[in-house]
Amino acid sequence: MRRISGGVIAPKGFRAIGVASGIKLSGRKDISLIVSNVPCVASGVFTRNVFKAAPVLVSMEILKNNPTGIRGIVANSGNANCLTGEKGIEDARRMSKIVEEKMGFESNTVLVASTGIIGKRLPMEVVEYGIDKACERIKFESSSTSAAEGIMTTDTKVKETAVHYVSGLETFNVGAIGKGSGMINPSMATMLCFVTTDVKISHELLYEALKGAVDETFNRISVDGDMSTNDMVIVMASGMSEFSVVKRDEKFQIFQNHLKEVLNDISMMIVEDGEGSTKVIKVEVCNAPKKNLAEEVARRVGNSLLVKTMMFGENPNYGRILAAIGSFGEKIKPEKLIVKVNDVIIFEKGNYVGFTDNSVLKGRYVKISIDLGVGKESFTLFTNDLSYEYVKINAEYT
Prior knowledge:
2 domains; single chain; L-amino peptidase D-ALA esterase/amidase; alpha+beta
């Protein structure tokens, strides 16, 4: 595996662009377009929020009806097109239709995504202008970075990555762009991730690879514990490389490992870019009786506002970590429990040790290790702290 430049245009057959249409008053890019030279096998994983945004519903429908003929993705930022009723559905379909008409694609071949403020109709005149502009520009210009810029909201950094595989005469690439900074929690969150690859693969195997990779990357991060209405991960495979995956064998595993790598890159960029965050926190839970219990304990600690603010203030009030663990109830056995912060023991088998020196909390990265001592299952969650800046960003977002 080798990292390469190019993001979503690194795999064979793809072009991308981002443009400013005027949705954002700042004048920053707010329309992104990714297209393929050939019909793609595609798959997606979407938010489980009951209030799914219009573009989520439309893209789910398109993928269900045409999983092997997808030609592109169009996305906007600055407006989520969520809680907008049937008109919102019409607007999302219109976004897809414009690209299909402008690019000469068949119907139901372009997926659609949105991110931004919930509860407002898209300014369709502005959106249509932006999509027209993107469709014209992509004919002579292609940039993964500009496409990544076009889906940013409170993000402070562009998020893109790509990896390359070669063995003999067989090669393939996987590239991705993403967005996300706040409203990040299990089942993904206010995040978008668009992945391209030139691997030859069936829809069924592509979905299996994507689902497994998402479970081990995006579903193991949390910024603030809130699940969004718009999040999705889409992968498109052009089949233009020599590498072919036809069954669940070593080649399937090689592809999934590369897919997992780019998704992990984007997910960790999201945690690093958490709104106003100053620390990245790794919560490791081990020796649990069941995996879901290990996950629940990790999330209770990782999503605890008291733990997050303690980390931001570098205040060694470690009882907050124990309180979060103990909130799980009788399944936690204090006499078996060992808790460490950056490898310094703060609780050991019924005894609170603590550590009054806050030096253990200094630095950008903090690890919380929780050994439940009652099984063999484990789970790891990545999260961050909660700062004054987070409150300011989200209080003044609209």
